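Changelog entry: the Developmentally regulated GTP binding protein 2 record was regenerated in this release. Current contents:
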Amino acid sequence: MGILEKISEIEKEIARTQKNKATEYHLGLLKAKLAKYRAQLLEPSKSPAAKGEGFDVMKSGDARVALIGFPSVGKSTFLSLMTSTASEAASYEFTTLTCIPGVIEYKGANIQLLDLPGIIEGAAQGKGRGRQVIAVARTADVVIMMLDATKGEVQRALLEKELESVGIRLNKSKPNIYFKPKKGGGISFNSTVTLTQCSEKLVQLILHEYKIFNAEVLFREDCSPDEFIDVIVGNRVYMPCLYVYNKIDQISMEEVDRLARRPHSVVISCGMKLNLDYLLEKLWEYLALTCIYTKKRGQRPDFTDAIILRKGASVEHVCHRIHRSLASQFKYALVWVSVRQQLESLSSGVSEWSSNPSPHFLLQRGQAQSTALKEWA
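Regenerated structure tokens:
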């Protein structure tokens, strides 16, 4: 029996098994086996592969965004509208057969946008170049899941299932579980919270399925068996995702309102160029980028050339972006923040200022999207 058949059998057994206290240990073992077989399926073949055209493109710019969706949902049209790159668009499926990169210029940042070929059901098993598409998506900072608003929630559920099966966790944070294998001493299990989904016995059964008999496990939050398996495997990717519903000009206003109110969702129409500006604002928010401007003593700041960094960046990161030798010679910095950032910091109760002159103090810790260095007198 091949790996695909084993995966199918386990999925069927999980589907027909009732979920209750008596079957939770059995379901936990089945999920552990399913994760193992899926990991084996994604392992590259040891036999030498035939040479062919590369699929991925070199990462460039300040951030990378991947466009994922079924064929003919408007990915190529969206790329052509948002960037200067012309991606072929037609009324038939699978117009795009390889990865086409483009660059979005927004607030001084260069955001690399990748138009990936449409994936189909079963992409995680390699159908329709699905493995290559998903492998590129794992390298992105944000995933834009392009959906056809006329197809309801079917496309979204299928795409989430495909990405989930290959270890991509959308809009989820990494489980707060400490796990460390040891050479001896058995399994040490502790928790700082009351666990309602996992027990010590279930944790031991899952570890034994992975041939782990000596380890230290500490639960700092109430996690499910699936999340604990993710921690054991260790190759999961946690990334933000924007669900973009295209072709809203073909559905009713009530349906548009319902889709727009869903979490992490944006409604647009590439054909009529509707709501694209709001999508850019949401994308900037999900990328968590901030603009840093520099100035010389006694002169106005240069607002034409921004340094783009991630939220939570320190002055040391700014030094490294300017020149790698600057941080070792650095003494102090004068930092000005925008009024908007100060107001957001006050509302969140987070102080933006630090008296520490070292290059390690945080330049930004709030939710503001830009930081401006104003004129110094």
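The mean pLDDT is 77.
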